[in-house]
Design the sequence.
């Protein structure tokens, strides 16, 4: 089963990245996530536990990039 | 006789052209020209996996039914509610962390502290996702997930210091630099 990096978008959830966790280069996956965070401020959460994660591993099948929130 | 020959030649030429055209359409090179985004996507080479570009969805949004979007957003919210242990009461989503209770609804979050004590204080602040337009259901889902992991975010939002990442750091998109 493929793993997915998703985020919320105007269309519901949007898949940013889909990969085979068994064979994917996880360093590159994390690099893509880091680039996305630098661009949008979104940070990764494990959708199985609901916890924020610093680095995605092969064990995570679905990761949600959570965008920054502003108060008012 | 001559006109019959000319007609036959034209007929066979048309058939031949049709086959050539069909082959061109089935050619992978032709397909690549049709979808140049994939050709220019260096992530495909880097990660060695299927990368789905967000702009595909931006363009595809025009074809997505409004009700389908709302359904997807609500499904996401239901999933986050279950994940965080929140409870829906009317339009509010109630999240309890220790002795603190958050009531999250459309663009607003209220915090009640010391629920068991004699003095139950409550504060309220607005919230929004400044850099992305998402359905209300997903705004609430984002707030629930962020608060469940970092309840102190409420104070950061109430302080009105700009966009705050899930870890509490301020995010300035213009510079693309996060600062404490």
Sequence:
């Amino acid at each position: 089963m493929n793993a997915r990096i998703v985020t919320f978008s105007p269309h519901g959830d949007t898949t940013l990245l889909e990969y085979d966790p068994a064979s994917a280069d996880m360093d590159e996956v994390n690099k893509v996530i880091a680039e996305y965070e630098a661009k949008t401020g979104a940070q990764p959460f494990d959708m199985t536990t609901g916890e924020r994660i610093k680095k995605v591993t092969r064990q995570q099948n679905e990761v949600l990039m959570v965008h920054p929130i502003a108060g008012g | 006789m001559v006109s019959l020959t000319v007609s036959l030649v034209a007929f066979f030429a048309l058939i031949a052209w049709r086959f050539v055209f069909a082959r061109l359409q089935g050619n992978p090179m032709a397909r690549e020209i049709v979808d140049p985004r994939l050709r220019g996507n260096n992530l495909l080479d880097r990660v060695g996996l299927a990368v789905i570009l967000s702009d595909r969805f931006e363009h595809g949004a025009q074809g997505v039914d409004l009700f389908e979007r709302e359904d997807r957003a609500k499904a996401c919210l239901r999933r986050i509610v279950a994940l965080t242990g929140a409870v829906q009461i009317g339009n509010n989503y109630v999240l309890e962390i220790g002795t603190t209770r958050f009531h999250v609804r459309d663009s607003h979050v209220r915090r009640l502290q010391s629920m068991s004590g004699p003095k139950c204080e409550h504060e309220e602040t607005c919230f929004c996702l400044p850099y992305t337009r998402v359905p209300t259901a997903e705004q609430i889902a984002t707030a629930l997930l962020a608060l469940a992991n970092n309840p102190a975010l409420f104070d950061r939002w109430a302080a009105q210091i700009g966009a705050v990442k899930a870890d509490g750091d301020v995010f300035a998109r213009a510079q693309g630099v996060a600062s404490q």
